[in-house]
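re: the backbone from monday

yeah here it is again, tokenized this time
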């Protein structure tokens, strides 16, 4: 296997300058100090670097193109299209407000992510935005010659540019909300096992329960996969026995929570009178359900705006941005009936 060719980032590391400085030197732009220019040129010669099309996209005028890479809406992620569509629409609006265009590429796994990155770079973008769970493959993104902003990363989250919220703290807050309503027997429906946010939300749930002295048994934690069907199946298992039912169930996303409500209805139980149910996301479905779903609002539009602004600002902007979540108490949760 032949070694990969050097990238603009390799040149930047060797010259101890930013990759934008390398791009400015390669494009013969004015305003670069001669000492920096000499260091970059020496590193180019030493590494045998050949400028490629994506490096030219970093020239002064730029392409005014940003590419968003998201999970292909199929398999277990088909039902979560609302998340991707919301971010995509917000990114389009943010780009247009700054005079930029947005293109979209989709991938299904780490292997197809590499192909999606190649297709994105062929458009000569000024930067890439990468949605979860694809953003949790940082190794595939390291060779990019343009800024890459990861949205809601959970793997090596402190590395590179990112915008995120605290999923663990949000899950802790929701669990605390249920505890404050008098519920101590609370079950949890996990999300997709390959999605880093699922583990963070479970950790927040466990921490709140442990602090309250109400640590759940293994039987109170169900494996789901962020779908309505998995929420329904988990709900049927958790609520099947009248003598051993939790009084509240917290699901790792809204679709799973709505599946739990469906299971409760099938079993003749009322929400929230017989069982309180909470979700996570504040999807459109959460607001259309009855009762309306208590949930955590993910700041998806703020994610998109912040990520676009990071690309446009480049080195002058913030490397990492944190956006606050919001707990929305609605009709699907109520105080525990003694």
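seq for it, each position gets an aa:
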């Amino acid at each position: 296997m032949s070694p990969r060719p050097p990238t603009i980032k390799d040149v930047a590391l060797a010259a101890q300058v930013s990759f934008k400085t390398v791009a400015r030197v390669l494009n013969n732009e004015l305003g670069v100090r001669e000492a920096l220019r000499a260091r970059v040129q020496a590193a180019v010669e030493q590494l045998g670097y050949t400028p490629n099309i994506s490096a030219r996209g970093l020239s002064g005028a730029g392409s005014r193109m940003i590419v968003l890479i998201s999970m292909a809406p199929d398999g277990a992620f088909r039902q979560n299209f609302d998340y991707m569509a919301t971010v995509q629409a917000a990114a389009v609006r943010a780009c247009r407000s700054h005079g930029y265009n947005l293109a979209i590429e989709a991938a299904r796994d780490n292997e197809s992510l590499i192909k999606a990155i190649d297709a994105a770079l062929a458009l000569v973008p000024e930067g890439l935005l990468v949605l979860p769970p694809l953003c949790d493959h940082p190794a595939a993104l390291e060779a990019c010659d343009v800024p890459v902003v990861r949205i809601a990363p959970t793997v090596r989250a402190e590395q590179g540019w990112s915008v995120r919220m605290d999923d663990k703290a949000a899950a802790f807050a929701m669990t605390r909300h249920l505890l404050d309503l008098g519920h101590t027997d609370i079950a949890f429906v996990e999300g997709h096992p390959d999605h880093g946010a699922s583990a963070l939300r479970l950790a927040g749930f466990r921490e709140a329960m442990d602090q309250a002295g109400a640590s759940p048994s293994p039987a109170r934690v169900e494996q789901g996969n962020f779908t309505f069907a998995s929420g329904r199946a988990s709900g049927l298992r958790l609520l099947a026995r009248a003598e051993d039912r939790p009084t509240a169930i917290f699901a790792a996303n809204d679709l799973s929570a709505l599946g739990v409500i469906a299971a409760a209805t099938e079993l003749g139980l009322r929400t929230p009178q017989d069982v309180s149910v909470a979700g996570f996301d504040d999807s459109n479905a959460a607001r259309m359900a009855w009762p309306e779903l208590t949930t955590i609002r993910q700041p998806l539009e703020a994610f998109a705006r912040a990520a676009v602004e990071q690309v446009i600002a480049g080195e002058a902007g913030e490397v990492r941005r944190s956006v606050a979540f919001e707990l929305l108490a609605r009709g699907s949760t109520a105080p525990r009936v003694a």
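Confidence is low (pLDDT under 50) at residues 53-61. The longest helix spans residues 81-97.
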